[in-house]
Design goal:
2 copies of one chain form a homodimer. In chain A, strand 13, helix 4 and strand 14 form a beta-alpha-beta unit. Helix content of chain A is 22%, strand content 25%. Chain A has an 8-stranded parallel sheet. In chain A, strands 1-2-3-12-9-8-6 form a 7-stranded antiparallel sheet. With 715 residues, chain A is an alpha+beta fold. Chain A has 4 domains: 193 residues, Sandwich (Immunoglobulin-like); 307 residues, TIM Barrel (Alpha-Beta Barrel); 77 residues, Immunoglobulin-like; 82 residues, Golgi alpha-mannosidase II (Immunoglobulin-like, Sandwich). Chains A, B: Belongs to the glycosyl hydrolase 31 family. Chains A, B: Keywords: Glycosidase, Hydrolase, Signal. Chains A, B: GO terms for molecular function: carbohydrate binding; hydrolase activity, hydrolyzing O-glycosyl compounds. Chains A, B: This is Glycoside hydrolase family 31 protein.
Chain lengths: 715, 715
């Protein structure tokens, strides 16, 4: 890969500033990225396991903004308890991030403990992806590069200071809980960070000039965003855990026959001889000929993804080689491999290569890597925090990094084979932007699932708000709309005999009591899935913008409109790519309010022109997506195909919104290898002018994947 | 006080055993109490702040039991992360404790983090009283004497060990969450303890021979149980936060006029000029003459209790003297006094003495000492864990100890004045048994409130399941029944204009929309309150058993019946004193199942004789308490009075259950001073024989508080 070696960065001028009680070092390892180091740095930080080098060239392209405080005002101190940091916080600043937060959005004034867990506990900050990272609407981001459990006090707690009794804080007696909550805490001036047990720390400050650029800078410093295999942008459908080879082939026939586009089939635990913990060996009773099955599925345009977790059963051929390479406590009777250690990762990966990739498997779902016992009280689901691993890492740090290391282990395998993929994982952390891996969850609150799309975009994460059962067909459709408007459109029927649109109720579904309206329902779902397939060229380009420029393909409105107070707490609308605004429905709503930021917008379904800076009311429709298009956009919508394969060509209808004189781009490559990094790619320019679209290709990729067959101008 | 000085204990023979990697010391500081020390012991443990010396004489009276493992098999190791302990755990052992757990009872197989918090987060173990303490039904208890956040893995997690693939763990693939949950984890053999940041530890092992004795031993080692002022066993009623002096006097007139017994009036924040944080100064606009008001209340037989928290407002006269004696972060704009430091406690206490006790106040409600921000996400409600205090303690340890230290500060004040009291607090910890302080909570699940009565008894804690609003009068009555069957009968109307029995709905209550049946309701409540007043002689003796022998006055059935599998998970029934079994109703139940352990029992209301070892069905009745009496009991029930004062004499009807030949005891003293510790007390023996009760007094207390006026024999 054509990137400058990271280590040369340290030749950049070094500032030494006095902070806290010790010498603090400040460097600028990349354009606009500042690194503060103090004390004894931990052996195992998230950055230690970075998947890619920083994209120095792309970082150079970003304009360098001011940070609204002096970096030297960041105060770091180390004492016997651990490491404390105080980071300036201005009046009125809004903070976001801390990974895949569940149930909160604007983190201003909150105390957050981003600790890995599969279940959010009120507002503690526990999450599948516990990033010690936040971004301010004032155009900068902060990463505390630690794998220790860390607490952030986002502006509410204040150090003691002499108060002027007469003027400072008026005395009053509050008589209700409501009054207490309303108490304004004045003089917020620091984000406080508490890292118990740390003897030193590295802090990265990513400058703006604006919020989006700060996020881009973080993503590019992590190595750039993920570009999944193109087929990964299609629909992924996970079948019931007890499906046998023939059941799967039957399910697939149903999809193809009904022209319900599905691109990936996911198998749940029973492909293995043992789980939990895992054997990683095909169960021949259920799958007599895996290779043949995968070939048959491939022939029908389907990729195969396998569920697993990393805890190794004594029934597994990996048990013996990993015994001395695992922690001193078990998880669910299984060995916990020390993924910090490269040879250990290699042993684990090689088995996958030899037994599973060789059969044609092209993806994995990496489950149970998020210390899920925390919420259950029952401690069996993972290893204790005091576990010791051969590498010297302890259980706490391993918990925070386990999902990251698991991704590294599996993703490397594909990368080495020059094969792109799209994986699933239940935990992640910092520096994960380059992984083509979507997070998923067992939580199932739809409103939170929508908010998590917004939250994921702050922190270099991809999130799939998967669809399982529902309380009604209407709710199922709302969830399906959200799914097709997300980074990964995932239907997880691991406990459902039939697709949920045939019966949304789990019990009835498994008893075969299907809905009467099933054909009408299929028609609705088909429409939504086809919409997803139409959007793929646009989405694929959005992911390329992520990969090459660090722009999150899915992001909260605050990222693009950081000064608009109306979006400070708006988490149920988000941007997709450059120009689409999605506003999914949830609950039992017939209508919802949609706030459009300033500018001119178009209703995607009616083409109605709307002036931004205010709220509109949108009506729920089963087969229409709640989408708005920014003026001066060319939206290329493909004629939907049943699946994407390596040679799929897309016939595009280009919708030109606004004046009719504008440009958009598409990204063209083989969709499945890393050859684009060596130039085998095209940037396809679509230029609208004088009632026509002009298409120009720039690059060395020889085939043509996109044909504009029609253009529609919308004023 | 006639107790042997604690320090002589260390002259007892010392065993030195090799454990972990370092020299471990094992001592027996009191009969059947073993102390393991390893590494560098923390400066601030719960024991550092013990309120009383160990009651060595009482401990000597306890028979010394075997512990079902060798103490030398407790493995302690210290490494760079902290301290780890492995304590043997036998197959089938049942574990209880960890302080005032909310939402769990039998802790077997669970992971528990007893961390101070006002809100339980699923099953993390967060609680108002986070004791690092558990007790086994096999007759021993373990205290890890630390104020650091500590995690206990109660038998589910296992160290790695070589497995015999053929026989050890059968391979299978689980296809549902249910199957996974049902997986039996075999070979449980340790409770694992993880104390991050500790460089050493003290562990106490309290031997049996049985579960009750182990608990007694812990309580006596802590200095014996609490003996509240006798008036504290009456009803406590907290008035609405905005009540002025006249409102309070009016409310009291209502109670007296209606003969609804109330013994203590609690004032909420507005007695002060500022809260939050607190000024600790009377608000003269609301209370023009506090001394006069307290005198008037005293004259009507009422004690006065004041709400406060310990965070000091800049409006307080305590602000200046405590400025340099407080932590470097504030809580809700207030100073956090360093209660570790005795001079700081003394300054705080002296203000209370001079301004509040001098006026006649006889108790306090110590609020907000439980780091309540943890659950809210909003960090304003307490100080950060990284706070530093002048004594050197950090915020984490201070959080765990704050309630304990707050109790010490306030209780000492009363003790020094030879004045007994009964206080309220929202957090506690180990060695708190001697404090006459009841815990309370803002959580309000009635079933959990009942369970917390059972849980409190394991760990030397008193719990008051307070009554606030309700969804129905029936629910209110159920909650009231639980309250009068608890350690403190508390009605907390801090946001209710009228008593909840006049209107259980908060909104309607405050709008003055009272229930139509209000006189009938008053009659029900009067009956329940009068029952409480009748029970006081029995209760007072139960508390004396707690004080002198460490027997919890309220305790789960498992404590008395540790081998009865039917009570392993039974948390909604409990023992009161020696012979009463309570089985409160909750929810909307018309009937409930009551399990009676082996032996002979009597229904308290019908006198029906019941054979134990099985379940009975009990019907809910508004004005009847769900109580059962053990055979061979003399239950002394007093003619109810409207309030207890220093010279109250109790006219007793003795109910003799069973053969008619048995003995019971009462404890007689002035009820309000510590003179009983110097012998000014009587043990009153009630001996039933030949259809009569013989009363014998033993002791130096000159007055007679109990007169048997009637005896009823029940066969």
């Amino acid at each position: 890969m054509n990137r400058i070696v990271f280590s040369v960065l340290f030749c950049l001028p070094v500032l030494l500033l006095k902070m806290g009680f010790a010498q603090t070092s400040v460097k600028e390892p990349a354009n606009g990225v500042y690194k503060i180091s103090e004390g004894v740095i931990e052996k195992y930080t998230p950055e230690c396991f970075r998947e890619e080098k920083a994209d120095i060239n792309a970082l150079k392209q970003l304009s360098k903004g001011n940070i609204p405080f002096n970096i030297s005002d960041i105060n770091v101190s180390v004492d016997s308890r651990g490491c404390k940091i105080a980071i300036p916080l201005g009046e009125g600043e809004q903070l976001y991030g801390f990974g895949l937060q569940v149930g909160s959005f604007n983190q201003n004034g909150l105390r957050k403990m981003p600790i890995v867990n599969d279940y959010p506990l009120n507002n503690l900050g526990y999450t599948h992806a516990p990033l010690p990272f936040y971004v301010s609407n004032k155009g900068y981001a902060i990463l505390v590069n630690t794998s220790r459990y860390t607490t952030f006090y986002c502006g509410s707690n204040q150090p003691k200071r002499k108060q002027n009794i007469d003027t400072d804080i008026p005395a009053e007696t509050k008589l209700s809980v409501e009054e207490l909550y309303q108490t304004k805490v004045s003089g917020r001036n620091n984000v406080l960070v508490d890292i118990k047990g740390a003897k030193g720390i590295e802090i990265y400050v990513f400058s703006g000039p604006d919020m989006l650029t700060a996020i881009q800078r973080y993503n590019l410093f992590a190595g750039g965003g993920a570009l999944p295999a193109m087929w990964g942008l299609g629909i992924k459908y996970r079948v019931k855990a007890d499906f046998k080879q023939t059941d799967i082939l039957n399910a697939v026939d149903y999809f193809r026959e009904k022209h319900i586009p599905v691109n990936v089939i996911g198998l749940e635990p029973h492909w293995q001889t043992a789980a939990y913990p895992c054997s990683f060996v095909w169960d021949k009773a259920f799958f007599p000929n895996p290779k043949e099955m995968v070939s048959q599925l491939n022939a029908k345009g389907l990729q195969v993804n396998l569920w697993e977790h990393a805890f190794v059963s004594n029934q597994s051929p990996l048990y013996k080689p990993l015994y001395d390479r695992s922690g001193d406590y078990m998880a669910f009777h299984g060995l916990v491999p020390d993924f910090v250690d490269k040879p250990t990762r290699d042993i684990f990966a090689k088995h996958h290569k030899d037994s599973l990739l060789s059969v044609g498997v092209s993806g994995f779902k990496m489950d149970e890597c998020d210390n899920s016992d925390l919420s259950r009280g029952d401690a069996r689901w993972s290893f204790p925090e005091m576990t010791k691993f051969p590498s010297g890492i302890d259980g706490e740090q391993m918990h925070q990094l386990f999902g990251l290391l698991y991704q590294k282990t599996i993703y490397n395998l594909f990368k080495e084979g020059n094969q792109r993929t799209y994986l699933d994982v239940r935990s992640s952390n910092a520096f994960a932007s380059p992984y083509p891996v979507a997070l998923y969850s067992d939580t199932y609150d739809h409103k939170q699932y929508i908010e998590m799309i917004s939250n994921a975009g702050f922190s270099g994460l991809l999130w799939s708000p998967e669809v399982r059962e529902s309380n009604s067909f209407k709710e199922l459709v709302m969830r399906s709309q959200t799914a097709v408007l997300s980074a990964q459109a995932l239907f997880n029927s691991w406990y459902l005999q039939y697709p949920p649109w045939l019966q949304f109720d789990k019990g009835k579904n498994n008893r075969g009591e299907l809905l009467e309206d099933k054909e009408a329902n299929e028609q609705v779902i088909r429409t939504l899935f086809k919409f997803r397939m139409s959007l793929i060229p646009y989405l694929y380009n959005a992911f390329y913008q992520y990969q090459s420029k660090g722009i999150p393909p899915f992001r909260a409105l605050i990222v693009d409109y950081p000064e608009d107070e109306k979006v400070f707490n708006l988490s149920d609308e988000y941007m997709i790519g450059e120009s689409l605004l999605a506003a999914p429905f949830s609950g039992n709503a017939e209508t919802r309010k949609v706030y459009l930021p300033k500018g001119v917008w178009y209703n995607f379904n009616t083409n109605e022109k709307l002036i931004g800076g205010k709220e509109y009311t949108l009506k729920f429709e089963y087969d229409k997506l709640p989408l708005f298009v920014k003026a001066e956009t060319i939206l290329p919508m493909a004629r939907p195909v049943d699946f994407i394969s390596n040679d799929t060509q897309f016939d595009l209808t280009c919708y030109v919104y606004g004046s009719g004189k504008t440009k958009s781009y598409l990204f063209e490559d083989d969709g499945t290898t890393f050859d684009y990094l060596n130039g085998k790619m095209n940037i396809v320019e679509l230029r609208a002018e004088n009632g026509k679209i002009m298409v120009t290709r720039n690059g060395k990729f020889k085939s043509k994947r996109f044909n504009v067959i029609k253009t529609i101008f919308i004023k």
